[in-house]
Write a structure and sequence with these properties.
- The structure is a single chain.
- This protein is α/β, with parallel strands linked by helices and about 260 residues long.
- The protein contains 11 helices and 12 strands.
- Strands 1-4-5-6-7-10-11-12 form an 8-stranded parallel barrel, surrounded by 7 helices.
- Helix 4 (about 90-95) links the parallel strand 5 (about 80) and strand 6.
- The longest helix is centred in the first third of the chain and has 11 residues, at about 35-45.
- About 55% of the residues are buried.
- The model has no long low-confidence stretch (mean pLDDT about 90).
- Keywords: Amino-acid biosynthesis, Cytoplasm, Histidine biosynthesis, Lyase.
C-alpha cells in the first residue's frame, strides 16, 4: 500500500479583489493580485489554492465571483473558495465559477444543515467546513478551544472539537482548521489543536495558522497528523518557496505530492 501523500496548500486572503495578509485577521496589508499569485504558487509546486474572501461575511455580501472565475481559469490544481457563502445557491455559483470545493464558516454555524444540503446536492468532497478556533476556558469548552466566526470577531458557544465531529456527520468532506491565536504570528501551528481534530474526524484536516518556516509544516504533517498544511505570509514575503517547503517535508520522510 502506498503512503498517503500530504499536501501543501497556499492561502490567498482576498479583500476587495486584492490579496491581503495580517496578524490574527487584522492589520491587513496588500501583497498582490490573486490571479497572478495563484499562478505563481502553482508553478512553484502548490498542491491546492484556497481563496478566502475575508471581508465578505463581515460586510454581509456575496463572494467576489469574478476573482474566482479569473483565478480558476489559470489553474490546473484544485481551488477552494470561501467567504460570503450562505446558501446552496451560493455553493453552486462558486462551483460554476470554477471552484472545486467551497468552504463555509460563519454560515455553517448559523445554519448547520447547510452542510447536509450542499453535500446532498454536490457531494461531500465539495464541502469544506472552515473552523476558526481560539483557546478558551476549559470549564466552558471541554477541548479548551472555542469556535469563532466573522474573521475571529464573534465568539460562539461551540466547542471546536465537537463542532468538527458534528460537521463531518452533517456532510463536510474536509476540515480547514485555523488557530486564530497563531494566525500570522509565525510561531508554528497549534499542534495540540490539530492533533485533537485529526483524531476526532475521519475526513482530511488542513492545518492553518502559524507557519513561520518549513519545519513548522513538517510538524503539522508529521507529529500532528494533518493531511495538508496551509501557508501564506512566509510565501507572500518571499521568505521561502513552496518547493523549498516540500523538499524539507520530503527530507523528513513524509510523502508529498510531486
Amino acid at each position: 500500500m502506498s503512503a498517503k501523500l500530504r499536501r501543501v496548500v497556499v492561502c490567498l486572503d482576498v479583500d476587495h479583489g486584492r490579496v491581503k495578509k495580517g496578524v490574527q485577521f487584522e492589520s491587513l496589508r496588500d501583497v498582490g493580485d490573486p490571479v497572478e499569485l495563484a499562478a505563481r504558487y502553482e508553478a512553484e509546486g502548490a498542491d491546492e489554492i484556497v481563496l478566502l474572501d475575508v471581508s465578505a461575511s463581515v460586510e454581509g455580501r456575496a463572494t467576489l465571483l469574478d476573482v474566482v472565475r479569473r483565478t480558476a481559469e489559470r489553474l490546473f490544481i484544485p481551488l477552494t473558495v470561501g467567504g460570503g457563502v450562505r446558501t446552496v445557491d451560493d455553493f453552486e455559483r462558486a462551483l460554476r465559477a470554477g471552484a472545486d470545493k467551497v468552504g463555509i464558516n460563519s454560515a455553517a454555524v448559523a445554519d448547520p444543515e447547510l452542510m447536509s444540503r450542499a453535500a446532498e446536492r454536490f457531494g461531500a468532497q465539495c464541502v469544506v467546513l472552515s473552523i476558526d478556533a481560539k483557546k478558551q476556558d476549559p470549564s466552558a469548552f471541554p477541548s479548551g478551544y472555542g469556535v469563532v466566526t466573522h474573521g475571529g470577531r464573534r465568539r460562539t458557544e461551540l466547542d471546536a472539537i465537537a463542532w468538527a465531529k458534528r460537521g463531518v456527520a452533517l456532510g463536510a468532506g474536509e476540515i480547514l482548521l485555523t488557530s486564530i491565536d497563531r494566525d500570522g504570528v509565525r510561531g508554528g501551528y497549534d499542534l495540540e489543536l490539530t492533533r485533537a481534530v485529526v483524531s476526532a474526524v475521519t475526513v482530511p484536516v488542513v492545518a492553518s495558522g502559524g507557519a513561520g518556516n518549513a519545519s513548522h509544516v513538517v510538524d503539522a504533517l508529521g507529529s500532528a497528523g494533518a493531511d495538508a498544511a496551509l501557508v501564506a505570509g512566509i510565501l507572500h514575503d518571499g521568505e521561502t518557496t513552496v518547493r523549498a517547503i516540500k523538499d524539507a517535508v520530503t527530507r523528513a520522510g513524509i510523502a508529498v505530492r510531486a
